[in-house]
């Protein structure tokens, strides 16, 4: 048996806000959408979907919401990580420092989207090694 992960769904307070973030930050194209409720973006071999949380979990002020999650989205980027990190930081994305680990040839930078979902960027040239 072969299993292929083809979609990750994040349950979010403000679908439009996060879809705009991922489109602007990473150029992800929307491939399916129900405005304000559902958005699916092409992220290479795996789609990123945003699903509005159910009514019992909605907050009065989605702009101040920060999720508590133990998940991390890891994305390989095809441009120099330092350059992308500087660009995102200039746009107000709170990026961590670029790091590397002894057991991995890749360089990484971790950050959070506007609702607090953690994502990590890795350079394609080093992550594929």
Could you explain the architecture of this structure?
The structure is a single chain. With 129 residues, the protein is of the alpha/beta class. The protein has helices at 15-26, 81-90, 124-127, and strands at residues 7-12, 29-34, 38-43, 46-52, 72-77, 99-100, 107-112, 118-123. It has a 4-stranded mixed sheet with strand order 1-4-3-2, with helices on one face. The protein has a 4-stranded mixed sheet with strand order 5-8-7-6.
Q: How are the SSEs ordered, and which strands pair?
A:
Blueprint: E1 7-12, H1 15-26, E2 29-34, E3 38-43, E4 46-52, E5 72-77, H2 81-90, E6 99-100, E7 107-112, E8 118-123, H3 124-127
Parallel strand pairs: 1-4, 5-8
Antiparallel strand pairs: 2-3, 3-4, 6-7, 7-8
Q: Would you kindly provide a brief summary of this structure?
A:
The chain contains three helices and eight strands; from the N terminus they run E-H-E-E-E-E-H-E-E-E-H.
Q: Going across the biggest sheet, name each strand in turn.
A: 1-4-3-2
Mean pLDDT: 91
List the uncertain runs. none
Shape: globular
Gap from first CA to last CA = 27 Å
Decide which structural class fits the backbone: alpha/beta
Count the E strands: 8
Residues in helices, as a percent range:
10-25%
Radius of gyration: 15 Å
Beta content comes to: 25-35%
Q: Specify the biggest β-sheet.
A: 4 strands, mixed
Question: How many individual helices?
Answer: 3
């Amino acid at each position: 048996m072969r299993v292929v992960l083809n979609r990750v769904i994040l349950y979010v307070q403000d679908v439009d806000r996060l879809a705009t973030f991922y489109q602007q930050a990473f150029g992800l194209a929307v491939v399916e959408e129900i405005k304000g409720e559902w958005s699916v973006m092409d992220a290479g071999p795996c789609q990123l979907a945003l699903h509005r949380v159910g009514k019992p979990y909605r907050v009065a002020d989605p702009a101040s919401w920060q999720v508590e999650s133990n998940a991390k989205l890891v994305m390989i980027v095809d441009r120099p990580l330092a350059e992308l990190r500087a660009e995102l930081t200039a746009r107000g994305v709170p990026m961590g420092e670029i790091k590397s680990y002894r057991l991995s040839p890749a360089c990484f930078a971790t950050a959070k989207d506007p609702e607090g979902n953690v994502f990590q960027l890795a350079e394609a040239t080093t992550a594929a090694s």
